From TrEMBL:
Protein name, as recorded: Small heat shock protein HSP16.5
Assigned keywords, A-Z: Stress response
Pfam families: HSP20
Domain CS: from-to ranges: 38-143
Xref: CDD domains: ACD_sHsps-like (cd06464)
Positions of the SHSP domain: 34-145
Family: Belongs to the small heat shock protein (HSP20) family.
Regions that span the bilayer: none
Length: 145
């Protein structure tokens, strides 16, 4: 007897090939699809019963340069920094500029209480605590006539 092939194996293989093709394209913004990129911010997402905890690496940024937003079930972290130093003496003026930007958007597995979200930033590590939203209880009861 021959064994039937699992159709989901074919689908998984298709998505892996599709992903590899996009990764090789210059200028492709992989972060839009949650795939990373050259200025990638490393993220860990932990499920701790009543809450999700996201830990993100953003070394070299101050907390004022980091923006965290939660919309629906999507968490977006942006870090933008502009460095500018000027050196002057009697002979010349030199200006050097450097900017750096990190951005990461992730889809959360469950809805969260947006008002209860908190974040801390210490030693280049951003920790975001997102309390899970209580499940809706039973919906609306409909009277039958």
């Amino acid at each position: 007897m021959s064994r039937r092939r699992n159709p989901f194996d074919d689908l998984e293989e298709f998505f892996e090939r599709f992903s590899r093709q996009f990764e090789d394209q210059p200028g492709f913004d992989q972060d839009v699809f949650g795939m990373g990129g050259s200025n990638r911010m490393s993220i860990d997402l932990a499920d701790r019963d009543e809450e999700f905890v996201v830990t993100a690496d953003a070394p070299g940024f101050s907390k004022e340069e980091i923006d965290v937003r939660v919309t629906d079930r999507r968490l977006t972290i942006e870090a933008n920094r502009d460095e500018r130093s000027e050196e002057s003496d009697e002979i010349y003026l030199r200006s050097e500029r450097h900017s750096e930007a990190l951005r990461r958007t992730i889809q959360l597995p469950e809805p969260v209480e947006e008002d209860g979200v908190s974040a801390t930033y210490k030693n280049g590590v951003l920790t975001i605590t997102l309390p899970k939203r209580e499940p809706e209880t039973g919906g609306k009861s409909i009277d039958i006539e």
